[in-house]
Design a protein that fits this description.
Elements lengths: L10 H17 L5 E5 L13 E7 L8 H5 L4 E3 L11 E6 L28 E9 L3 H15 L1 H14 L7 H27 L1
Parallel strand pairs: 2-5
Antiparallel strand pairs: 1-2, 3-4, 4-5
Helix pairs in contact: 3-5, 4-5
């Protein structure tokens, strides 16, 4: 399969703001920090048209409060990832309500996830819930801000995405592995730069 990346679209910020407002209505009492991350958050950078959102919470004790608050809506909770990433809770947001897509109203992810949900064209967002004190929170924010302020790194990433989008991949994870060496190298520099800025 080929991975389709689209030219930067200003509507991605509008989509993020809309989802952020919706999330605040559901989980606002936890006083979360809701951030737009990933390539769709960097002006001028091509991306898969799926909004990456990171929800920062106070501590790990709040992680398992989120799935209950989002149940029965157009969010799908990938509980199966908790074992490999216990510091994070991961959701996708569907473009439409489950019942309109002929899916169960509440999709609890220790169940078999319907094959239909793996279709990325049905997703509008990926949502990552992480404690703000986590190094993973810092890593994502630092990488985003580094790309926003270092044009040469953003351009290098853009060229890599264009090159990789021409290749055949087994799946999206395979494509992500193709980006991994660049991302790890850039993230390391980004975190050092970000930490210095905070001093």
């Amino acid at each position: 399969m080929k991975i389709t990346v689209e030219q930067y679209n200003p509507s991605w910020k509008i989509q993020f703001d809309s989802i952020k407002n919706e999330l605040e209505k559901n989980i606002g009492f936890l006083s979360p920090r809701i951030e737009h991350i990933g390539s769709t958050s960097v002006e001028g950078l091509s991306a898969k048209p799926i909004i990456d959102i990171m929800i920062g919470i106070k501590d790990e004790e709040e992680l398992d409060k989120i799935p209950v608050l989002l149940q029965g809506q157009d969010y799908v909770y990938y509980e199966k990832y908790n074992k490999d990433m216990p510091y994070r809770r991961f959701f996708i947001k569907l473009i439409d309500r489950p019942r309109k897509l002929d899916l169960p109203e509440i999709i609890h992810t220790n169940d078999e996830i319907p094959e239909k949900i793996h279709d990325h064209t049905l997703r509008i967002a990926h949502i990552h819930v992480i404690p703000i004190s986590s190094e993973h929170w810092t890593r994502h924010i630092a990488f985003r801000d580094y790309l926003r302020t270092h044009r040469e790194i953003k351009d290098e990433y853009q060229h890599l995405k264009e090159y990789l989008s021409q290749k055949e991949w087994y799946d999206g994870n395979d494509y992500n592995e193709g980006k991994d060496p660049f991302i790890k190298r850039a993230e390391q520099k980004a975190v050092q730069w970000y930490v210095e800025l905070q001093k």
